[in-house]
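re the bet — no i am not wrong, look at it urself. input seq straight from the record:
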Amino acid sequence: MRMENAALDLLRTVFGHADFRGEQAEIVEHVADGGDALVLMPTGGGKSLCYQLPAMLRDGCAIVVSPLIALMQDQVEALHQQGVRAACLNSTLDAETAAKIEREWLDGDLDLLYVAPERLLGGRMLGLIERAHARGQVALFAIDEAHCVSQWGHDFRPEYRQLTVLHERWPDVPRIALTATADAPTRREIVERLALDDARQFVSSFDRPNIRYTVVHKDGGGIRQLLDFLRRHDGESGIVYAFSRRRVETVAEQLVEAGIHALPYHAGLPAETRAANQRHFLQADGVVMVATIAFGMGIDKPDVRFVAHIDLPKSIEGYYQETGRAGRDGAAAEAWMSYGLGDVVNLRALIDQGEASDERKQLERGKLDALLGYCETTQCRRRNLLAWFGEHYEVGKAGCGGCDNCLEPPETWDGTVAARKALSAVYRSGQRFGAGHVIDILTGKTTDKVSQYGHDRLSTWAIGSDLDARQWRGVFRQLLAAGLLEADAERYNALRLTATAGPVLRGEQSLSFRREPEPRSRRGRRGSSSMLEAELDSDALARFRALREWRSELAREQSVPAYVIFHDSTLRAIAEADPSDARDLAGIPGIGERKLERYGDDLLDHLARSAPGSAA
């Protein structure tokens, strides 16, 4: 009980939160008492507190394994803002600075020390841990992003598999492994690879109730649809994921031309450019990062208001992790995706042409199929997404309230006849052509290729003239998603029937398709307010915007990301409460004693000066 009270006191005074969420209290008490733990908690659920609080409650310093330098630097700076003794050891430090941090650690002057797995496994670091352990200066080992241990995952880091050395050499030191993304097989692999067989497992809901999920069918390249989406998020920070490096650069250029503050990020850019763009994204407000999946793991920016995929991601697991970078602060956020027939063909080809083993290819096809099922479902997307992680989500009569299918239920139609026509046209044209040519056959469009091959004499010529090309692209996309057709990567993605197409062709199986929505009219102006500003009255909105400007000035002066000073959600709560003194300010979530002492007077003074009718 005394440990629980001490943890709650630290939570309130240091981190500014009134109470624990979910299983946080139980996890903190278990680890602080010396137990091992595997923690699966969604992004934004408060995983970091699960090892930061035990580190402050136990004697010695916690060694935190973190995969990215930028992530550990941001976390250390955020802890400094709260008055916590933290540091990191990484390759950006000069020898003198690194030696100073090592002395602080061995002298007992640190609560948390962040290191990359590669550095931890080096002989020098292991030797330092041995010395610190002998002095009682190792409180616990925390392994963040633990899913990196899985060779089947999208973020595999081979060094993570060697972290069993921590348990082998120092079995008396408690370990906590944490991740936001792990299906059941990945969980089993984490337990096996990190020797956590006796660890207590804490599995929270994977649901992110503050995120709204939307999937649209791509119109052309999807850029106009993306611009329409971004106009609803004017002035907000977000990430746009694209399929390839070239696509990233093209989309970034198009967004800049449209007046959006966008930057590219991919592994082919010079290291200094990538670092500068990432730093600007983290420190500034309203930046849109256009990136490949090379960007994002461990990005600790809590005020990302949206994640958009202009192209289909590679797996449902990757999609969940990437969309999870939105709304870490718990405020409203949006996950938006456009995908089309070409995306399905390209990703299937990427798998088939890869050098992976047959076993790995089969696994990747299964993950892609699950993602396609998510995209094409007419049911609640949240329920479909959570089912992948083995979680049942009970959908009420009104739906989940946070996905396009529940908010605007899609229309469906009996696509059995259309499917038979499409499959017949593929078969009778020799299973040698892509969807574009087969659609020309179905709609009776005379082209040079149609004439060259005599396809205007086929029995399937013009039998699909009741649908237009856009509707037929939807039919073929859904046939590919259902596994009735596949694209032959070695024959320029020519479509061919699969074994499961037979019953449909013979009329033994019926199909229901999503109806293709009519293209929406283009909007030429930007939205009037962001999601975070929604429902604020005019005075609160003015205070919120003034506070963001004040925070930006402080961040520039300190050369730190704006969110380590205060999260957007904290600024919004301040704007709504309109506090008049330090006592009022202290009651707002996210304001601990150190931040109140450091910023309280200046914040209250700024609020007073920016108030309507003030002399300022």
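see?? The chain has a mean pLDDT of 89. told u. also The longest strand covers residues 211-217. so pay up
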